[in-house]
UniProtKB/TrEMBL annotation:
This is DUF38 domain-containing protein. It comes from Caenorhabditis brenneri (Nematode worm). It comes from the Eukaryota. InterPro entries: DUF3557. Pfam families: DUF3557.
Length: 315
C-alpha cells in the first residue's frame, strides 16, 4: 500500500531541496505548489544579467526565440525553442515570474545584479540577501528589489555604476549602511574625488580595487583620520602603487610634524618593513600593514586598540 508524504514531511523535503528542482517540481505537481509557495526558497547564488539567469549552478539564457539551459556541473546544455517571438526582456520577465512570483520569501546567500533589474524583474519582487554585488547597474534602482529585512547588507560590492543615474551612489542608504563596502572602479586620477569619497564613507570596512593609490594620498588619508580621532574598528584596504612602506614613512613623518596631528600621546611611532603604527588617541592606534598579494601590492589601514606588542607579534 502506498502512503503519501504528510504535510510536515513535504515541508521538510522542500526546505532542503535544490531551488532548481523545487521550481520544476512545483511546475509539474499542482499538489505541492501551494505548500511550495509558503516554504522559503533558499538560493546559494543568483546572478541576473540582461539575457541570462544563473540559479545556483543552472544557467538559463534567453533570446527572442529560444531558452537555453546549461548545468555547469554536468556540462550539459539544451535549448527550448519558443513558438511565439517576444522581446527578450519580456521573456526574462516571464521567466523570473515563473521562478519567483507568489513565493513568501526568497533568500539568496549571494546575489549578483549585473544588469538593469527594473527591465527584467517583475515589479514588487524583492530578495533577501546578506551579500550583494551590483555591477553595470544603478544601485539606486537595485535597492528597490532588496527586502528591508536584509538591511544592513553584510557585504556590498559596487562597481561600474552609471554616473548619469548615480552621481554619488555612496549617499544611498543601502550603500552608506553596508557593513563591508567593496568598491571596484577605475578612477582615472586622484582629482576624480576618490579621496573625498573615502574620507566621507561611514562604512566600518571598505575595500577599493581597480586603481593604485600613491603614498602621498595614503598619508593624507591617515592624517585626516588623526584629525577626526577616528573610532576603533575602521578598516580600509586599497591597491598600493609602491613595493614597500619607506616612502609612506617619510611622507607621514613630514605631515605629522605639523599642528595638532603631531600629538602622539607620549608614545612613539613604530616603523617596520611591513607595518607602521601611529598613535591615534590615548588608547588607540592607526595601523598600516603592507600586504603582498599575487596581483598588485595592497595596504590595510585600520584603527585598533593600543597594544604595545602588536608590531612585534606581527613580525
Amino acid at each position: 500500500m502506498e502512503i503519501g508524504l504528510t504535510y510536515l514531511c513535504q515541508e521538510c523535503l522542500l526546505q532542503y531541496l535544490d531551488a532548481n528542482r523545487r521550481i520544476q517540481l512545483s511546475a509539474r505537481c499542482p499538489s505541492v505548489r501551494k505548500l511550495d509557495e509558503l516554504v522559503p526558497l533558499r538560493i546559494e547564488t543568483l546572478t541576473i544579467r540582461e539575457k541570462e539567469i544563473t540559479l545556483n549552478r543552472i544557467k538559463y539564457k534567453v533570446d527572442d526565440s529560444f531558452l537555453e539551459m546549461k548545468n555547469q556541473l554536468a556540462l550539459k546544455e539544451f535549448s527550448i525553442h519558443i513558438t511565439k517571438t517576444l522581446p527578450f526582456n519580456e521573456i526574462m520577465n516571464k521567466l523570473m515570474g515563473f521562478f519567483f512570483n507568489g513565493r513568501k520569501e526568497i533568500k539568496v546567500h549571494r546575489f549578483k545584479a549585473k544588469c538593469a533589474l527594473e527591465s527584467v524583474v517583475p515589479q514588487g519582487l524583492k530578495f533577501m540577501t546578506p551579500n550583494l554585488i551590483v555591477d553595470q547597474n544603478s544601485i539606486t534602482t537595485a535597492e528597490q528589489f532588496i527586502h528591508e529585512d536584509s538591511l544592513p547588507i553584510q557585504h556590498l560590492v559596487l562597481g561600474n555604476w552609471p554616473s548619469t543615474v548615480d552621481r554619488f551612489p555612496f549617499d544611498v542608504d543601502i550603500v552608506r549602511n553596508a557593513k563591508f563596502l567593496e568598491i571596484i572602479a577605475a578612477f582615472q586620477s586622484e582629482e576624480d574625488g576618490w579621496f573625498q569619497i573615502v574620507s566621507q564613507l561611514s562604512n566600518r570596512q571598505v575595500s577599493l580595487a581597480g586603481f593604485s593609490i600613491a603614498y602621498q594620498a595614503v598619508a593624507l588619508l591617515i592624517t585626516s583620520w588623526k584629525e577626526q580621532l577616528k573610532d576603533v574598528g575602521y578598516k580600509i584596504i586599497v591597491d598600493y602603487g609602491h613595493g614597500n612602506l619607506e616612502r609612506l614613512k617619510d611622507e607621514l613623518n613630514s605631515l605629522l610634524s605639523i599642528g595638532e596631528v603631531a600629538e602622539d600621546f607620549g608614545r612613539e611611532r613604530v616603523y617596520t618593513a611591513k607595518h607602521i603604527s601611529i598613535p591615534l588617541t590615548h588608547t588607540s592606534n592607526i595601523l598600516i600593514n603592507f600586504l603582498e598579494t599575487t596581483g598588485r601590492p595592497r595596504i590595510e589601514i585600520l584603527t585598533v586598540r593600543h597594544i604595545p606588542e602588536i608590531i612585534q607579534n606581527q613580525e
